[in-house]
Design brief:
A hairpin with a 4-residue loop joins β4 (99-103) and β5 (108-112). The chain contains 4 helices and 5 strands. It is α+β, with helices and mostly antiparallel strands and 127 residues long. It has helices spanning 2-9, 49-59, 84-93, 113-116, and strands at 21-27, 32-36, 67-74, 99-103, 108-112. The structure holds zinc ion (ZN). Zinc ion binds next to α2 and α3. Residues 48, 50-51, 82-83, 85-86 line the site of zinc ion.
């Protein structure tokens, strides 16, 4: 997965921040969905890599319970956790026991989704 993510980083579109991110969503049935961050001159129109990968899987019909892991690769010396907007999107589609794998060129750290989403706001709260 690491090599695939490193290659995917080349497709990140980050001319403003120069902070490239690639993400892969792995489903329980073995499918892979890729995403990169796509920035925009109107910065608010920028979309994170994680969101692009997750939305791509959702577009194919995958839903909460179908996912196994989320990978996030950054072109930086520091590993990076998903931003809080992405954490809300992750809450919508991942279970708390699913894997989150953070990577950069030199390092890999494995977490559970529950490690970064301690008090989720989800559909359960709307009941
Ligand atoms: Zn984000």
């Amino acid at each position: 997965m690491k090599e695939r993510l490193l290659k995917l980083l080349d497709n990140a579109y980050a001319p403003y921040s120069n902070y490239k991110v690639a993400s892969i969503v792995e489903t329980k049935d073995g499918k892979i969905y890729e995403g990169v961050n796509v920035e925009n001159a109107s910065l608010g129109a920028s979309v994170c890599a994680e969101m692009n990968a997750i939305n791509d899987a959702v577009e194919d019909g995958y839903r909460k319970g179908d996912f196994k892991a989320l990978y996030v690769m950054v072109a930086s010396d520091r590993l990076a956790f998903p931003c809080f907007i992405c954490r809300q999107v992750i809450t919508e589609f991942f279970n708390l026991e699913d894997d989150l794998i953070l990577m950069n060129k030199n390092e890999t750290k494995k977490y559970k989704i529950k490690d970064i989403i301690v008090h989720p706001f989800s559909s359960e709260d709307l009941k």
